[in-house]
Design a protein that fits this description.
The structure holds 2 protein chains of 2 kinds. Chain A is mainly α. Chain A is built from 13 helices and no strands. Chain A has one domain: ABC transporter involved in vitamin B12 uptake, BtuC (Orthogonal Bundle), CATH 1.10.3470. Chain B is an alpha/beta fold. Chain B folds into 2 domains: 233 residues, 3-Layer(aba) Sandwich (Rossmann fold), CATH 3.40.50.300; 242 residues, P-loop containing nucleotide triphosphate hydrolases (Rossmann fold, 3-Layer(aba) Sandwich), CATH 3.40.50. In chain B, the strands form 5 sheets. In chain B, strands 13, 16, 19, 20, 21, 22 and 23 form a 7-stranded mixed beta sheet that branches. Chain B has a 6-stranded mixed beta sheet with strand order 6-7-8-3-9-10, with helices on both faces. In chain B, helix 15 links the parallel strand 19 and strand 20. In chain B, helix 14 runs parallel beside helix 15. The radius of gyration of chain B is 25 Å and the shape is globular. The chains are: A mainly alpha, B alpha/beta. Chain A: This is ABC transporter permease. Chain A: It comes from Flavimaribacter sediminis.
């Protein structure tokens, strides 16, 4: 029992939390931005898979790691544009379109991957992002190892959360996005174009999702395999609800989920005797559902979420 | 010498499919004027104002503001030109603050931060200058309807509007709020603003406007200086014929059909109805008058089978119970005209014929061994359309496409066609225009003559006076003792509506 608690005092656990949380932070922020403008983007799972492959492929073909992330963001944005085109001007069902985008992006990803690397018994690897120790801070005992020896994209994820929070809360653009998610007619009546705002939000959000996926192949692992996103996209969708559509809480939620995940990994080694490891794998998901039930009762859903906007209609 | 008009619409035509919503409309607005745009529902008033503001693009014609032609279809251009619009359905975001709602669209989208402090100062100044007090940091969802409207007006003023268009501004307001609004509007014209307000209510047009333009069937049919006209003339111009609201003829009431004895309805801590008693007799109309929000909704639910009494009993059709199910009521020939026809009265997505038979689909005439007999349903619906003069409808028309008045006629027809014993009519003419009101009143009186017991819940004093045999007032969930219509003058009813009736019982 004590050993199970001792895990919390190891710096490696906390280091792992940030690492595991990074793709979730990007993905959750991306989904949150889309939803704040009033559009659910269930294409996230596919867009993350796509981002993972595209970034990896760019680096594998000789590109820089950062170029890899940029290409992933661009491709994610393009799939976002497709989702936006179908759901905003055409007003199609956001559920169906999103799931379609996920299927399309995932299959296309695998297709392109197989096409460029027809034979591979073990997946080829790249040289991933290395931990970037922040001078000074990383020398602090415990905290240094836990928080300040991460790879660069992890710091970027936290920065992205801060920027998203600032933009949404403090800038005219953020107000326009929030208002579009609440009542697009109000936006139009004040002379702005809610359709453009929605499309923009979806493109930016989808780009963030793809960067989240790219982190998996450029930092967590060093190779690509088609099933690697493993439902992280769906977790992000749940985290948005958990976070009550607030970027700060989204960061917190992603970290909490990552903590459960990192903990169960270590717990598997501590607990002895006959407990199937799948039970441990379930822990973060079960706890997430519990947390979701507790938190979402107070959640504040954007009023116009999933309501297509058509000019001149009420 | 007259100054040039601030706003000029010329030759505006707009078609939606086959429907000509605006047919070659021209009108102008002068500086400092309070112009009323009067017309029935569906006359094209809102379409015209939406073209003016750039929500719609006209098929032909042009809009000039302060002499310059406005580019069509661009609300931003209209705002730029100093035109503000207060929509009938408020365009506010409930989860955001007043200040957020006012500031949206006023700053460049590329800015790193939003200048909220000067904005708050400007808003507060405007609010004080025009007597439109509202807390800038309050959430819209916490505001009353009247306060929300103030925010809508402030939004336009904040953007330096010099012309303000108000689309049916009093539709959702109480009488007191409406009077206050018109007072504010008059102060605004004194400071040089020019206003257009859309309405179908004659009394407010007479009371508030300086000039009236009357629209009918998408055309301008007349224009009057308010001082040179009267209600009767305006009514006739608006409807196109003389409209006379019918009045009740004396008639002896029969046996009690529906009654409530000491009924209370509580929900958690809140008491929605408090020890109310009433009885409705065959061939009479019992009017329940009161300012909306005093328990009418609960009373409506209780009598429509959607709520049960916590204490006390209801008696109907020889049965006494805490409440009846909608099924019981339909079986016992009760007709129900719910308060909100769009959400409770009809299903907008379905055709008129489907809505016509909704309550009676299990009757043998409408189904054969579990299959809908479409022909019988359509025939029945066509019969309703003919008998109750439901305009613009065929059995296959989508119900959403009907105007409010015609939808209400469909609901009435569906209920009255089978000579019900008991009818609940909850705010039956809310939002309807003169022609439709007269039609609804005529039908209700005909049902009374045929022996129905009618419970009329309304906040319209004229309506209750014209139709009811007896009147009870509802205040904070309590009902006054009934007063015979012959003894009810408007002063007495006014006192009753203010909750002053105690002591009279003893007398």
């Amino acid at each position: 029992m004590m050993e199970a608690l001792d895990i919390f005092t190891t710096a490696s656990l906390w280091g792992a939390v940030l690492r595991i949380a990074t793709p979730l932070i990007f993905g959750t922020l991306g989904a949150l931005i889309c939803e704040r403008s009033g559009v659910l983007n269930l294409g996230i799972e596919g867009i993350m898979t796509l981002g993972a492959m595209v970034a990896w492929m760019t680096v594998y073909q000789g590109g820089d790691l950062w170029t890899g992330l940029a290409v992933a963001a661009f491709c994610g944005g393009m799939f976002g544009l497709l989702h936006a085109f179908l759901t905003v001007p055409l007003g199609l069902s956001q559920h169906v379109t999103g799931l379609g985008i996920t299927l399309f992006a995932s299959s296309l990803t695998y297709f392109v991957y197989r096409l460029s690397l027809p034979v591979s018994s073990s997946p080829p690897t790249i040289e991933p992002f290395q931990p970037l120790a922040i001078p000074g801070l990383s020398d602090i005992p415990f905290l240094g190892e836990a928080l300040f020896s991460q790879t660069a994209p992890t710091y970027l994820a936290i920065l992205a959360a801060a920027v998203t929070a600032w933009v949404l809360a403090k800038t005219p653009l953020g107000l326009a996005v929030r208002m579009t998610g609440e009542n697009p007619h109000a936006v139009e009546a004040q002379g702005l174009n809610p359709i453009r705002i929605r499309i923009g939000a979806i493109v930016v959000g989808s780009a963030l999702m793809a960067v989240g996926g790219a982190f998996l192949t450029t930092a967590t692992f060093n190779s690509f395999f088609p099933t690697m996103v493993q439902g992280r996209g769906w977790v992000c969708i749940a985290l948005v609800v958990f976070a009550s559509w607030q970027p700060g809480k989204a960061l917190l939620g992603a970290l909490l989920f990552a903590l459960f995940d990192a903990y169960q990994l270590r717990l598997q080694h501590v607990v002895e005797g006959g407990v199937p490891y799948q039970l441990f794998l379930m822990v973060p998901y079960v706890l997430s559902i519990v947390a979701l039930i507790v938190m979402s009762r107070r959640a504040r859903v954007p009023n116009a979420l999933m309501a297509p906007y058509r000019r001149g209609e009420r | 010498m007259t100054r040039p008009p601030v706003l000029e619409l010329s030759g505006i035509t707009k078609r939606f499919g086959d429907l000509v919503a605006n047919d070659d409309i021209s009108l102008s607005l002068n500086q400092g004027e309070l112009l009323a745009l009067l017309g029935e529902n569906g006359a094209g008033k809102t379409t015209l104002m939406n073209i003016l503001f750039g929500h719609y693009t006209a098929d032909s014609g042009e809009v000039r503001a302060f002499g310059d032609v406005l580019p069509p279809g661009k609300p931003s251009a209209a705002i730029e030109a100093g035109i503000g619009m207060v929509h009938q359905h408020f365009t506010l975001a409930g989860n955001l603050s007043v200040l957020d709602n006012v500031m949206i669209g006023t700053e460049g989208l590329g800015l790193f931060t939003s200048a909220r402090r000067p904005a708050r100062r400007k808003l507060t100044e405007l609010a004080e200058r025009f007597g439109l007090q509202v807390d800038p940091e309050a959430m819209i969802s916490d505001l009353s309807v009247g306060e929300r409207q103030r925010v809508e007006i402030l939004k336009a003023l904040y953007r330096d509007a010099r012309v303000l268009i108000l689309d049916e501004p009093t539709a959702v307001l109480t009488r007191i709020e409406a009077d206050k609004l018109f007072e504010t509007l008059r102060t605004m014209t004194e400071t040089g603003l020019s206003l257009i307000f859309i309405s179908h209510k004659l009394h407010e047009v007479m009371a508030a406007s300086s000039r009236v333009v009357i629209l009918r069937g998408g055309k301008v049919v007349a224009e009057r200086n308010t001082a040179d006209t009267d209600r009767a003339e305006l009514a006739e111009l608006m409807v196109g014929r003389r409209v006379v609201r019918p009045r009740r003829q004396d008639q002896r009431a029969g046996d009690t059909v529906f009654s409530a004895r000491n009924v209370s309805v509580t929900q958690g801590e809140r008491t929605l109805l408090d020890d109310v008693s009433f009885e409705v007799r065959s061939g009479e109309i019992l009017g329940i008058i009161g300012v909306s929000g005093n328990g009418q909704a609960t009373l409506g639910k209780l009598t429509c089978g959607l709520a049960e009494a916590t204490q006390g009993d209801l008696t109907f059709d020889g049965r006494t119970a805490k409440g009846f199910t909608p099924h019981d009521l339909v079986e016992s020939a009760a007709g129900r005209i719910p308060e909100d026809r769009n959400t409770e009265g009809a299903i907008g997505e379905m055709a008129v014929w489907e809505n016509s038979v909704l309550e009676r689909i299990s009757e043998p005439r409408f189904n054969r061994r579990g299959f809908v007999n479409r022909k019988a349903c359509r025939d029945y619906s066509a019969e309703l359309i003919r008998r109750f003069d439901i305009r613009g409808a065929t059995p296959d028309t989508g119900t959403r496409l009907l105007s409010g008045g015609n939808m209400q006629k469909m609901i009435l027809g569906r209920n009255l066609a089978s000579t019900p014993k008991f009818i609940v009519a909850n705010q039956p003419t809310r939002g309807l225009d003169e022609g439709a009101i007269a039609a609804v009143h005529t039908e209700l009186l005909a049902a009374r003559e045929a022996g129905a017991a009618i419970l009329l819940i309304s906040e319209d004093l004229d309506e209750v006076n014209a139709l009811s045999d007896r009147i009870q007032a509802i205040v904070k969930g309590r009902l006054s003792a009934p007063v015979a219509a012959s003894e009810a003058d408007s002063r007495r009813i006014g006192l009753m509506m203010a909750g002053i009736w105690e002591g009279e019982d003893a007398a």
